[in-house]
């Protein structure tokens, strides 16, 4: 393979981020919209951030050159941190966790303290930033969706949900939320925050992750049963269609049955192509428009919990940690199953759209 880091190697010869969480699971990865600053949340109650710089290879046969510096770590949460997001200017990181709080970290302050800006009645599973309203949005296991102005402890808006929040994504004017019970709701956030869609998941089994298309025309959702669905809000005959496909499955030697793994994360590239990562330790790049798989990475032989492309789309970060898909009996301990965060340099030819061809994937 070409275009990978050279100074520190992880599985697949990608660049290993120094000082990742060493115990418990890595729950989220997010990039700053203004710089190559990466944050990770984890079940050890911490939020960590790194400055990541890459020099692309001068020729395809040479590896990219990396400089990745650990910058800071906050342990202000009292229980596991389940999600993070950035403010549009990249200065603030917002986090939500099992301590039922939503917190704000000023990266420019030099402090590791976090200001509490919101609270739920149960763990906060997801956080996002609504740029259209300049509000933080949080979804919890208390079946509530709340919007926060950082200057006030009282929510700027609340929505009672049918079930617990399992995953959430917000992009532009579109907010989608995957709930327990295979329910999905979508909101438009401007000019007023209002529910636009309430539907059952197009997949048969429990939703694990959800992500809005870059053009906001629909979303992709992944399940615990190794399937991903592409769903458009408005059907356009001849131009777009809803469909689902199998991924993150391993055939046995006779190919009579498959070992099924959860789709743990979906991340869209600025081109509109996307990645899926799963419990099989595999990364896939996909093109939904041509219905093709663009690239498959060799398995890292451990679960991949989450992933994200940077704003420019030339760095792909993914986190390796046990996802408890096989229960306690599947966990072999931190020495046998060490956590890790890897960075993959993404040349354009790996991720750009391809021409459509006949047949289904």
CATH architecture: 7 Propeller
The CATH class is Mainly Beta
Number of helices: 1
Task: Give the termini distance in whole angstroms.
Answer: 24 Å
Rg for CA atoms: 19 Å
For CATH, the homologous superfamily is named as: YVTN repeat-like/Quinoprotein amine dehydrogenase
Kindly state the percentage of residues in helix. under 10%
β-sheet strand percentage: over 45%
Q: Helices and strands: which structural class? A: mainly beta
Query: And the CATH topology?
Result: Methylamine Dehydrogenase, Chain H
Strand order of the largest sheet: 1-30-29-28
Number of strands: 30
What would you say this structure looks like, in words?
- The chain is mainly beta and 361 residues long.
- The chain has a single domain, classed as YVTN repeat-like/Quinoprotein amine dehydrogenase (Methylamine Dehydrogenase, Chain H, 7 Propeller), CATH 2.130.10.10.
- 1% of the residues lie in helices and 47% in strands.
- The protein has 1 helix and 30 strands.
- The longest helix is centred in the last third of the chain and has 4 residues, at 348-351.
- Mean pLDDT is 91; it is low at 1-9.
